[in-house]
Amino acid sequence: MSVLVFAENQGGSFKKAAFEAVTYGYKTAQVLGTECIALCLGEASNAGELGKYGASKVLSVADASLNSFDSQAYTNVIAQAAEANGANVVVLMHSSTGKGLVGRLAAKLNAGSAPGVNQIPTNDGAFRVKKNVFSGKAIAEVEIKSAIKVVSVMGNSFQPEAVGGDISVESFSADVPASRVTVKSVDKVQGSVPLPEAEVVVSAGRGMKGPENWGIIEELAELIGAATACSRPVADTHWRPHHEHVGQTGVAIRPNLYFAIGISGAIQHLAGVNSSKVIVVINKDPEAPFFKAADYGVCADLFDVVPRLIESFKKHKANV
Amino acid sequence: MKLLVCVSKTPDTTAKISFNAENTEFNSAGVQFIMNPYDEWYALVRAMELKEANGGTVTLINVGPADNDAVIRKGLAIGADDAVRIDCNPKSSLYVAQQIAAFAKDGGYDIVFCGKETIDYNGSEVGGMVAELLDMPFISFATNLQIEGSDATIVRDIEGGKETVGVATPFVLSAAKGMAEQRIPNMRGIMQARRKPIDVKSPIDFEDLSAVVSYEMPPAKAACKMVAPEDMDELVRLLHEEAKII
Ligand SMILES: Cc1cc2nc3c(=O)[nH]c(=O)nc-3n(C[C@H](O)[C@H](O)[C@H](O)COP(=O)(O)OP(=O)(O)OC[C@H]3O[C@@H](n4cnc5c(N)ncnc54)[C@H](O)[C@@H]3O)c2cc1C
User: Fold this and answer.
1) pLDDT at B42 > cutoff 90
2) How far is the CA of B227 from the centre of ligand 1 (A)?
3) Does B37 reside within a domain?
4) A176 in a structural domain
C-alpha cells in the first residue's frame, strides 16, 4: 500500500505547487495508514526537498526525454511506478500538465478518478473527496470505488507543511516509451507570475476604457507581486492577451487575494474567481453585482482610486 | 479527413444551480441547456474549418439521453454532417470515454476533438481517457491546430506559457480558447440540420468506478465591507491586519 504523488517540476526545479501536492499526499497517506512516495519525471535539481513535506521516498526517472510533457509517456511511467510501489492512490497536481494527465492515467489504471479535489479523502469505509463543480458554483462529494484511485489536487487549496527534512533521491528505472509528440518550441511568459499559481491577482475589466490605461494595473500588480488578469470582453477585444481571461470560459483561479477593478461581476466571470479567499472590488456603480461576492469594496472611479491605492501600498511597504 | 467531435450538454452559464431535496442530483427544472462552450466554439468550429479547407466529414458524438438531441441538432446546424448518440445516463467520465472509444475504435477517425473541459463537472478527463483507450497521442489545451497531410502542428497551453508540438494523425485533442471563433448557425443550417441523421446506439457495458454522492453549496460570504475611496491606507491596513494577506 502507498500513496504515490507525481510531483511536477517547473523548468527543472520544484516549487510551491509541488510541495502542496506532497502535503496532500502525506495527509492522505496518514488517513489511510500508509506511506507517501513522491515521483519525479525528467531532470530536476531539488527533488530531495520533497521529503520535507512528508514523502518517505523520492523516486526519480531523470530521463531527458521526460523533460517535456507527453501524456502517453508520462502515463506509462507513472503507471509503472504505481505498480512497483503498490499504490492505491495516485495524486497529481491539477495544473495544465496534471489536467492533461488525470483522465489518461485513470483509463490506463482502470481507476476511478476525481479531478481538482480540494479536500483530504475520508476513510470511513468509503473513499470520498470533494471538488468544485459548476465552475465553483457548487461542491460535489465524489466516491471512488476502485481499488486504485487517481485524484488531482486543486492549486492553492492546501498550504505546504514541512514535517521533516530533505531526503535522498532514489532513481527508479522505468521503461520510457518513445513519445509520438515532438516539441518544436516553448514560449514561456517571462518575468511575471503565472496566473494559475499566483497568490495575488489584479484583474481589470471594461471599466478601464481601453488598453492604453493598463499602466496602473501593471504597476499595482508589480508592486504587490501579483499576476494580472482580465474579464472576457477585454481579452476578446484584444486589449489584453487571451491567457489573462478568467472566468467560466477562461482560466479558473483561487488566489488568496483577487482585485476586481472595473469588472461588473457577471455570473460567468464570478464562476472562475469566486473561490478566491479574499476579493476586493473597485467599481463606480454601487449596484455592480460584484459587490455581493466581495469581502472589501470601494465604490468610486477606478482612475482616482487605483493610483491612491498604489501610493498606500508603497507607504505600507516602506514601513514593514 | 474523418473528424469526430465529442459534444456534451451543460446548463447555460447563467443557470441557477440547485439540487434535489436529498442533495444527490442536479435540479434541472427550469434550467436551459446548451452545448458545452468549449466543444461548440472551439472544437466543433475548428473541425468545420478543417473540413471546409481539406474536405472530409465531421461527425458528432454525444453520450446521453434523448433530450440531448436538441444540443446535437445545434451542432448539425453549425455544419456537422451527421451524429451519433449513445443512449444512456452517464454517471462518470470513464463511462463516457468508454462509450466514445468503443464507437471510434474502428471508425478510422483522423482526429478526435474534445473541449478542454465541461463547464458543469470541470473534469478535463474525457479526452485523455479516450486517447488512452484508443492508444493515440493526446494533446491537451490546444489553442491552434494546423494540418498538412497527416502532420499536425499544434500550439497548446502549458504551465506559464505555450508550447508548439508536432504529431501525426490519428490523435485526440482538447480544444481551448484561441482555437476558433464562435459561429452562429444560419437559417439554412438550421433547416438542413432537421434532415441530418442522429444515429442512436446502445451503450457497451461498463461499471462506474466513481460517482458523485452528494452536492452542497459553497459557504455564504459575509457582507462586503465598504472602504471610503479617500482612505486607501485603510484598505491596505484591512488587508494586512484583518485579512492577513498583504
Ligand atoms: C457563455 C458565456 C460565457 C462567458 N464567460 C465569461 C468568462 O469566462 N469571463 C468573463 O469575464 N466573462 C464571461 N462572459 C461575459 C460576461 O457575461 C460579462 O459580459 C463580462 O464578464 C463583462 O465584463 P466586464 O465586467 O469587464 O464589463 P462590463 O460588464 O461592461 O462592466 C464594466 C464595469 O466597470 C465599471 N466601471 C466603468 N467605468 C469605471 C470607472 N471609471 N471606475 C470604476 N468602475 C468603472 C462599470 O460600473 C461596470 O460594472 C461570458 C458570457 C457568456 C454568455
Assistant:
1) yes
2) 22
3) yes
4) no
Nearest CB partner across the interface for A133, out of B122, B139, B240: B122
Q: pLDDT band for position B78 (50/70/90)?
A: very high
Q: Is the beta carbon of A262 within 6 A of some atom in ligand 1?
A: yes
Q: pLDDT tens for residues B191-241?
A: 999 999 999 999 999 999 999 999 999 888 889 999 999 999 999 999 999
Cβ atoms A252, A228 nearer than 8 A: no
Tell me if A184 is assigned to some domain. no
A37 and A139 both lie in a single domain: yes
Residue A181 domain flag: no
List chain A residues with CB under 8 Å of B145: none
Q: Provide, rounded to the nearest whole percent, the portion of chain A with pLDDT above 70.
A: 99
Q: For residue A37, which of A71, A97, A82, A100 has the smallest C-alpha distance?
A: A82
Q: Which residues of A201-239 are buried (b: 16+ CB within 10 A; e: fewer)?
A: bbbbbbbbeeeebbebbebbbeebebbbbbbbebbeeeb
Report the amino acid identity of residue A293. Answer: A
Domain coverage including residue B38: 2-219
Q: What is the pLDDT of residue B140?
A: 97
Atom index in ligand 1 nearest the CA of residue A302 equals 42
pLDDT score of A191: 62
Q: What is the DSSP letter of B13?
A: T
Instruction: Indicate if A157 and A292 belong to the same structural domain.
Output: no
> Measured from the CB, is residue A301 less than 6 Å from ligand 1?
yes
Q: List the domain range (segments joined by +) for residue A265.
A: 195-319
What atom in ligand 1 is closest to the CA of residue A205? 26
Distance CA B229, CA B54 (A): 58
Residues of A in contact with B132 (CB under 8 A): 72, 75, 103-105, 107-108
Q: Does ligand 1 have an atom closer than 6 angstroms to the CB of B178?
A: no
State whether A203 and A119 are in the same domain.
Answer: no
Comparing CA positions, the residue from A263, A254, A259 lying closest to residue A279 is: A259
pLDDT for position B25: 94
Q: Would you state the pLDDT for residue B70? A: 96
Give the single-character DSSP code of B135: T
Same domain, A266 and A301: yes
Domain at B33, CATH number? 3.40.50.620
pLDDT of residue B206: 96
Q: Whose CA is nearest to atom 1 of ligand 1?
A: B13
pLDDT (tens digit, 9 = 90+) per residue, B27-37?
A: 999 999 999 99
Number of structural domains (chain B) is: 1
Contact call for residues A119 and A35 (beta carbons, < 8 A): no
Cell of A79: 503507471
Domain boundary among A171, A206, A225: A171
| Inter-chain CB proximity B218 and A99 less than 8 Å | no
Domain total for chain A?
2
The segments of chain A whose pLDDT lies below 70 read 190-192
* Nearest CB to A296; choose among B137, B177, B235: B235
